[in-house]
Amino acid sequence: MRGFEPNKFYLFKLLESVDIVAVQEHWLQSFSEHKLTELKDTHIVYAKSFDNGLSSPSLTRRGKGRVALFLHRRFQAACAIVDTTSNRLLCAHICDKDCSGSLLFVNVYMPSGSSAADQAEYADILTEISSLIGQYPSAKVILMGDFNADITGLPSSWNRKAQLLQHYLTENSLVSMMTIYQNSSDYTYMSDDGSKKSYIDHIITHSANVGSFFEYMVVPEDPLNTSDHLPIQASFMSHLHPCKEARQEINMTNHKYNHIRIKWNQASSQEIQEVYSTAIDDICDQLLSSLPDEASLTGKHAEYMLNTLSQAMLNVSMRNLPYASGKKRKRQKPEWSTSVDSTYKAMKLSWKKWKLGGKNRSQANPLWIRYRSDKAAFRKQLRKQRHNLESSRLLQIERAKKGDDRLFYKLIKERRSRADASPVDTLIVNGKSYTGKATIQGFEEYFKMLSMPNPGNNYQSTITDTVEKLANVISTCTPNQRPFTRTDLDKAIGQLKKNKAAGADQISAEHVLFGGEKARNLLLVIMNTFVAHSFIPDAFKYGIILPLHKGNGKPLTDPSCYRGITLSSTFCKVLELLIKPKLLEQLHLLLLLLLILPPLFSEISTKMQ
């Protein structure tokens, strides 16, 4: 990391999308470790500094090296820190409440020197890691950090530390994920002058656990990263399930939803096949190979596989295909041309440099002057583009007025709709006023109130009776009959509509349609398991409510004048489309029996008389 202070903005950026972050060389002394905790409240932090355990405070200007581990808060209740002798090690053990599975994370910062004392300390730390692993023989072990040893290339070129590390890995059946995923051009360390590059940072696990990893990459250069190291990012499968209460708390408090929309129409079919479908097939191949027998599969196992598949689909599509997110909606506006985008990126880059330089507004500061100049250029280009766009619209209206009345009134209607499409800034719920960003909370209170049962009516009992009757019909037509076939699944997926908004899991219909053959095979196993065990995953229970105004001059401040449209999970729609034909088949059979049997019984009774 090469210091927390100059890289805290980059670390904050990494924490927005990663559950676990291992940091080396934060350069903080023990009395400054609170800065790590204050960085982002979604993660808990465990840290060690070089002066931990010293009898007297250190008088050095800054701390030396040492480690920190960021864990998402949903793992807090299941996490325990394991004591270590060396302050170069930080070990965390995470397990389920019933101890059915566990993970052992070891964050390490190895000595960088080449002296005999450094090599001896290197060997001692490896010995202590073996002791830590021995304390948890059933845990899945993941070692990560700066090992200061490059084990790429020919063994004859390795230094003593690289030889020690490779010997240790071989003896303990461990493997660096770098040896499986590394490209020839990858490196994790580069000297200040750029003359030396090496691969000295590693993520290490037992060889039996290699199949659990479905993504591994060296994160590219970023202007916010001032370190001489590049981070390694990996995704792996785990059977750990955070507690239900923690998931509910996170979902209820996170009002700001960042919607991600993959621009599938901007990529050709061949490109989607190469960069998305093939990658998903490789991941699903690993998932299928790790599946136990179908007879021993449970609903929880299937839910875990579904969550892993959806996360892989989202990660691969975002990494390889163009997308837009809620945080960048201005880029979706018509005036956001290529020239505007280039000046915006130049302004953003100069702003980051000025921010890293201490935000000095002095006229003698070249970073401040460059940022102001780029900002002025961006605004000028944006105004120019808006003017050109407005002129072309007016010209189009003038031309349509002379020869095409239908097009003329269509353009006028679009212009008026665009002028009227202003977001609601005030909402009144039960006499309480919500303004600005608080209107989201107002809508939440209103729809929560609608979902609560009213003691004055019998809607709840009626709905319960109807659902129970429907459940009885479903139970007779699904689990006791043949499971879904691949033909059933293909037909269900074929009914999904493209260019529709995704649900809370961000998975759209295109993610499933372009998933590939092996993705469909895995999805078939998952859906059959859900039905066989009458299991509903948590992802199917969440939706996003979009309040759409009913129009016709109704007041914007009244929430009852809005229609709540719920965006549900695409995988949930697939399951519904699988069950629907079987359910209709049974209902048609029941209806046929009701039509045939009464006349038949009547005829029999007549003959008996």
Describe it:
Residues 242-256 have low confidence and may be disordered. This protein has helices at residues 4-15, 34-37, 116-135, 160-171, 178-181, 244-253, 269-289, 299-320, 338-356, 366-403, 405-420, 439-451, 459-477, 486-494, 509-513, 517-532, 570-608; strands at residues 20-24, 43-47, 67-72, 79-82, 89-95, 102-109, 140-146, 174-176, 189-190, 197-198, 201-206, 213-218, 232-236, 260-262, 323-325, 426-429, 432-435, 544-549, 562-567. It has 17 helices and 19 strands. α8 runs antiparallel to α16 (517-532) and α9 (338-356) packs antiparallel against α10. The chain folds into two domains: 4-238, Deoxyribonuclease I, Chain A; 255-584, no CATH class. The strands form seven sheets. The chain has a six-stranded mixed β-sheet with strand order 4-5-6-7-11-8. The protein has a three-stranded antiparallel β-sheet with strand order 1-3-2, with no helix packed on it. The chain has a two-stranded antiparallel sheet with strand order 9-10. It is α+β, with helices and mostly antiparallel strands. The termini are far apart. Helices cover 46% and strands 15% of the residues.
Note the main attributes of this structure.
19 strands, alpha+beta, 46% helix, globular, 2 domains, three-stranded antiparallel β-sheet, Deoxyribonuclease I, Chain A, single chain, six-stranded mixed β-sheet, 609 residues
The total count of helices amounts to 17
Shape: globular
Query: What would you report as the Rg, rounded to the nearest angstrom?
Result: 30 Å
Poorly predicted runs of 5 or more residues: 242-256
Structural class: alpha+beta
Largest sheet: 6 strands, mixed
> What is the total tally of β strands?
19
Strand content: 15-25%
**Strand order across the largest sheet:** 4-5-6-7-11-8
